[in-house]
């Protein structure tokens, strides 16, 4: 109906245009007659008049008199000047617009849109009124707006500011027109906005696509919308129905029959092998139809669709190996002479698997033809979560290792760059979770489990099975030949950059794997010498010595040295060390270096230090030629060994057994003394464990069965637990935390780790698999598992998983609910996820965070906090911001920087993920801190174009300038730092119910904070200024920012709470100091989130305009700079709204 109606309107419009054109033609036919008559008159004019006219023109040109503008001749047409003609045409156009249906409404709505689109310049109250008026205009007439290029943006604007009911109103009015909208050049964007975050709208739109996917995927406009919905938000059930339409007409009919019936109980599969197993007689028509559909898109060079990649994979998986179907399939791919299809396939999940299978099944010519298209895209492949598997498959199946090396390694190793630039590129790759895989994969016949994900490992196993039939070369021979071409550049990197690599866990893993993998192939002695020199370095300056000590105290460094001393990898099958051939003899090298540095005393210091297990490894090494000498030194200094140190305790046990065998009186006396000391330590530990077990049981009882009348006792347990020996786990929250005295080599209880990854494409199934690992009873529970997706975040995916058992109240269900937070795409570039987990656990120990339940490959599971998420409007209400001030003061006081530094000392002098700050930033301690984090982000900015490189240089200068101007160690905390949340936006503030067990008497409202991924040491003024900036929400509505008086009241409450929870005295003038500091830091949140958004714009898959957000936030920073320097006032520019609001009393 909608289509026929629009056709009729189009016919009427065409007819009216034709009528107007005829009228215009009749007028135009009169004009030549008038022109001819004028021409005849001019021809009959006398020569004298002509001469007279000429003289007048000459006089006008050369004479001294000035001709007025009004006396200038104007062009006449049909008796009108050009100005009059244009005015008349404009009036006619306006008249035509006014004659159209709903002209006044459309004109008014466009004016409202013009006003609303200037977000930060419209006061909140005015915006609400405009949105209300806009919905009054469009209600019942949405279809009249959406098919016009200039008015569809009005509906998009209405959708943006709409309430859930108003969104539903729009989607209801458009129901039945979704396909037509998708095919519209302009309205297709409306579809994209409708389906995001609204499951009901998504289901309605997808159901209208059923039965039409074949046509829509070939439509120039609709194809991208269909594929985006399929790739990002469609459920597994909906994807299956859409994909089945590629299999033939009967599946198109089936798809139409599914409209309005998408029950999850009906098992619909898109896996072609399952369909063919059930109906083998349909194989030929299905395969023929699928080949025809895919071939059409390949020939049209529209090969970027995920649904096409899925269809191609299904086709190839059901081709018989060696059959004409496979040959024809390879021929179809080769028809794309530019290789676009290969490049598109490599970067999707199904496409990369298909490409790997093609490499495995193909002959040498096919493999060479595929790899040649990636010759300039190797780094891009290496860093992609799917693309890297293509490189690994090439390692596994291509017999011509010379060709493989020439194709892959020059770009992977950046051989075309100068030495310094090349090493910086390689360092960045070693610290990237995915990009390091192609570098380390060849270092062992079987890649370690920590290097490959489950999906990649399964794919490699599949490729290896196929390789048995299609490749001739021995796999180990192929691997060694490839290692020879990559070994020396990696060993040279270790030799030159060992300190930088040792500052991160990834770097230490890189060193260990490369040394083991390249032994016997490259020259490892230079790398081993550099490692030994780093371990025994003795700087002259005190600060440098402290830095070295912190570096060597890192558990990752201890594990690396221990592994190198052992001389090989641990084999779980034989439960022994599998030695490298030829032997490394690093144990002898390190022993000699230690002895030459400080003699026996230095060996004892190592045995008592954080790397005591390195000495233990030496004492247990099979081929260590200096073992007797080492044991002799330890025996002579037995009394100096610390039994509290785990490694030293093991050494004492070894020496003790040896002393008894010797029978010497002196040795026996020493052993008895050591054993007595060790036994006393064991007794102390046993007593501590007994106390902790009782306290832990009491805490669990209080947590699950809150005693509302004893809030003091509940709070007292939270405070006491962390201070007694080793802190016990709280519902898993602290399983990865331990006391500051127990850091040796990372030998500590671990938080439960689930070896699974969350998959956004199958959200519900993936969430169930993860939660069942920590709640196995939920599998057989009578309740229904409910999964709710929160849409407030712009970094991660957040789900609430509840077991809705019949008979339980909402509060009881919420008490057992679990939050699942899956990390955003490539966010490890800007967030240290290991540090985030430690920060979360540390806060949970002190009752400032919900218990952490488990980690999985790309996220966390933790307890749900019962309460209501704040909105920006809630945040500006006085009860809420006063509660936030009190909670923030408690947060900063109860997590003093000294305690955090104990947790973070493993990071040593590196920033997050091992980044070392440059320039004067490097001297700021402790690290990481807010300055080193910003330095890391600026370093991570892309600079692949001159414009981006210039921007990066400018931002680096601004960061150095800001550090110099602002960092003055004023304010609360240690050395001017507190442990800051650094992301206190409204969605991370939870308003607790008034009857919450943790509520304090006399408090009208309590809040809690969530999401600690950006938590790091920072000035208190930064954390507070950043929170104030978030009062405006994502829309950056500066009218909502706190005024000067509100800020002062906030800081009064903050300091009152800080003093109540801190043992450190606070200066009397701290309120004035903090007010001044917060004012000085008001521009830095704009810089912080602006740089963050620039990175997110290149890595995130979340539907958010990061690029525009970056410009807005950086604009805040530069506006503050202009205000501080006075340049804005000097230039006479109006003060920006944000600065005006900040200056208000």
TrEMBL record:
Residues 68-441 form the PUM-HD domain. Residues 17-26 have a biased composition (Basic residues). It comes from the Eukaryota. Residues 1-106, 658-683, 902-924 are annotated as: Disordered. GO terms for cellular component: nucleolus. InterPro entries: ARM-like, ARM-type_fold, CPL_dom, Kinase-like_dom_sf, PUM-HD, PUM3, Pumilio_RNA-bd_rpt. GO terms for molecular function: mRNA binding. Pfam families: Choline_kinase (PF01633), CPL (PF08144). Residues 63-82, 910-921 have a biased composition (Polar residues). One of its GO terms (biological process) is rRNA processing. The keyword Chloroplast does not apply. Residues 663-683 have a biased composition (Basic and acidic residues). The keyword RNA-binding applies. Keywords: Repeat, Ribosome biogenesis, RNA-binding, rRNA processing. RNA-binding nucleolar protein required for pre-rRNA processing. Involved in production of 18S rRNA and assembly of small ribosomal subunit. This is PUM-HD domain-containing protein. It comes from Fonsecaea monophora.
């Amino acid at each position: 109906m909608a289509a026929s109606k629009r056709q009729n309107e189009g016919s009427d419009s065409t007819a009216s245009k034709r009528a107007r054109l005829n009228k215009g033609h009749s007028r135009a036919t009169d004009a030549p007659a008038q022109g001819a008559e004028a021409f005849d008159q001019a021809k009959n004019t006398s020569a004298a008049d002509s001469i007279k006219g000429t003289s007048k023109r000459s006089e006008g040109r050369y004479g001294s008199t000035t001709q007025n503008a009004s006396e200038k001749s104007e062009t006449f047409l049909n008796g009108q000047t050009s100005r009059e003609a244009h005015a008349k045409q404009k009036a006619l156009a306006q008249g035509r617009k006014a004659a159209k249906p709903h002209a006044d409404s459309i004109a008014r709505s466009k004016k409202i849109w013009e006003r609303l689109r200037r977000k930060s310049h419209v006061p909140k109250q005015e915006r609400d009124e405009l949105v209300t008026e806009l919905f009054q205009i469009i209600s019942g007439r949405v279809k009249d707006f959406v098919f016009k290029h200039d008015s569809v943006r009005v509906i998009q604007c209405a959708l943006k500011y709409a309430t859930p009911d108003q969104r539903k109103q729009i989607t209801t009015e458009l129901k039945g027109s979704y396909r037509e909208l998708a095919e519209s050049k302009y309205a297709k964007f409306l579809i994209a906005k409708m389906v995001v975050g609204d499951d009901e709208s998504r289901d309605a739109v997808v159901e209208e696509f059923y039965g039409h996917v074949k046509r829509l995927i070939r439509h120039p406009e609709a194809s991208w919308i269909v594929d985006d919905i399929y790739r990002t938000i469609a459920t597994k059930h909906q994807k299956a129905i859409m994909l089945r339409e590629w299999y033939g007409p009967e599946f198109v009919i089936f798809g139409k029959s599914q409209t309005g019936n998408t029950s999850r109980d009906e098992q619909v599969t898109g896996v072609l092998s399952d369909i063919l197993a059930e109906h083998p007689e349909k194989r030929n028509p299905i395969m023929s139809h699928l080949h025809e559909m895919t071939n059409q898109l390949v020939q049209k060079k529209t090969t970027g669709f995920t649904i096409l990649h899925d269809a191609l994979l299904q086709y190839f998986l059901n081709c018989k190996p060696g059959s004409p179907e496979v040959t024809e399939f390879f021929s179809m791919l080769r028809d794309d002479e530019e290789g676009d299809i290969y490049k598109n396939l490599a970067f999707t999940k199904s496409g990369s698997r298909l490409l790997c299978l093609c490499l495995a099944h193909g002959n040498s010519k096919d493999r060479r033809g595929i790899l040649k298209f990636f010759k300039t895209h190797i780094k891009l492949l290496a860093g992609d979560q799917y693309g890297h598997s293509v490189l690994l498959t090439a390692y596994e199946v291509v017999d011509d290792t010379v060709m493989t090396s020439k194709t892959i390694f020059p770009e992977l190793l950046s051989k075309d760059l100068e030495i310094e630039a090349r090493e910086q590129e390689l360092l960045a790759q070693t610290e990237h979770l995915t990009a390091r895989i192609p570098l380390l994969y060849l270092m062992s016949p079987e890649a370690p489990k920590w290097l490959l994900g489950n999906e990649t490992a399964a794919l490699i196993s599949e490729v290896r099975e196929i390789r048995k039939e299609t490749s001739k070369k021995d796999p180990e021979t192929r691997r060694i030949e490839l290692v020879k071409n990559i070994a020396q550049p990696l060993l040279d990197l270790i030799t030159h950059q060992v300190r930088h690599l040792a500052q991160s866990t990834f770097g230490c893993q890189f060193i260990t794997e490369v040394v083991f993998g390249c032994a016997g192939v490259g020259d490892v002695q230079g790398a081993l010498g550099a490692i030994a020199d780093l371990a025994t370095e003795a700087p002259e300056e005190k600060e440098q010595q402290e830095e070295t000590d912190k570096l060597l105290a890192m558990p990752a460094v201890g594990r690396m040295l221990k592994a190198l001393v052992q001389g090989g990898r641990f084999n779980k099958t034989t439960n022994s060390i599998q030695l490298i051939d030829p032997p490394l003899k690093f144990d002898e090298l390190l022993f000699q270096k230690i002895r030459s540095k400080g003699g026996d005393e230095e060996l004892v210091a190592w045995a008592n230090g954080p790397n005591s297990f390195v000495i233990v490894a030496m004492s247990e090494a099979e081929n260590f030629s200096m073992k007797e000498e080492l044991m002799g030194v330890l025996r002579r200094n037995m009394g100096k060994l610390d039994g509290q140190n785990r490694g030293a305790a093991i050494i004492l046990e070894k020496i003790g057994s040896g002393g008894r065998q010797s029978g010497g009186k002196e040795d026996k006396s020493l052993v008895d003394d050591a054993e007595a000391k060790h036994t006393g330590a064991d007794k102390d530990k046993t007593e501590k464990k007994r106390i902790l077990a009782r306290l832990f049981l009491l805490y669990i009882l209080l947590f699950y069965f809150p005693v509302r009348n004893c809030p003091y006792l509940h709070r007292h347990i939270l405070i006491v637990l962390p201070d007694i020996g080793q802190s016990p786990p709280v519902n898993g929250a602290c399983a990865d935390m331990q006391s500051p005295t127990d850091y040796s080599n990372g030998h500590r209880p671990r938080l439960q780790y689930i070896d699974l990854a969350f998959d956004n494409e199958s959200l519900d199934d993936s969430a169930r698999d993860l939660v069942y690992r920590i709640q196995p009873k939920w599998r057989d529970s009578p309740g229904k598992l409910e999964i709710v997706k929160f849409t407030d975040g712009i970094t991660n995916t957040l789900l609430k998983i509840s077991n809705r058992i019949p008979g339980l109240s909402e509060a009881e269900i919420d008490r057992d609910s679990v939050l699942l937070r899956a990390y955003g795409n490539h966010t490890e570039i800007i967030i240290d996820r290991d540090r985030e987990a430690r920060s979360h656990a540390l806060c949970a120990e002190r009752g400032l965070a919900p218990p952490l339940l488990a980690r999985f490959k790309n996220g966390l599971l933790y307890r749900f906090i019962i309460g209501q998420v704040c909105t920006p409007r809630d945040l500006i209400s006085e009860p809420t911001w006063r509660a936030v001030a009190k909670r923030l003061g408690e947060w900063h006081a109860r997590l003093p920087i000294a305690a955090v530094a104990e947790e973070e000392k493993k990071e040593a002098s590196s920033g997050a993920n091992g980044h070392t700050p440059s320039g004067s930033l490097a001297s700021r301690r402790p690290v990481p801190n807010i300055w080193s984090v910003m330095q890391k982000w600026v370093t991570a900015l892309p600079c692949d174009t001159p414009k981006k490189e210039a921007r990066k240089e400018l931002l680096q200068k601004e960061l150095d300038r800001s550090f110099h101007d602002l960092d003055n160690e004023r304010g609360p905390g240690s050395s001017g730092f507190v442990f800051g949340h650094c992301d206190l936006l409204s969605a991370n503030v939870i308003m607790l119910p008034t009857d919450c067990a943790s509520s304090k008497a006399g408090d009208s409202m309590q809040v809690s904070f969530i999401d600690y991924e950006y938590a790091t040491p920072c000035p208190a003024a930064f954390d507070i200024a950043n929170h104030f900036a978030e009062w405006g929400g994502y829309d950056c509505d500066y009218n909502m920012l706190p005024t000067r008086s509100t800020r002062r009241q906030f800081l009064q409450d903050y300091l009152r709470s800080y003093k109540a929870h801190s043992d450190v005295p606070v200066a009397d003038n701290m309120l004035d100091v903090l007010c001044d500091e917060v004012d000085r830091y008001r521009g830095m949140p704009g810089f912080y989130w602006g740089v963050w958004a620039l990175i997110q714009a290149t890595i995130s898959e979340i539907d958010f305009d990061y690029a525009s957000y970056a410009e807005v936030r950086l604009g805040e920073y530069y506006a503050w700079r202009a205000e501080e320097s006075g340049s804005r006032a000097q230039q006479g520019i109006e003060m920006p709204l944000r600065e005006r609001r900040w200056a208000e009393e």
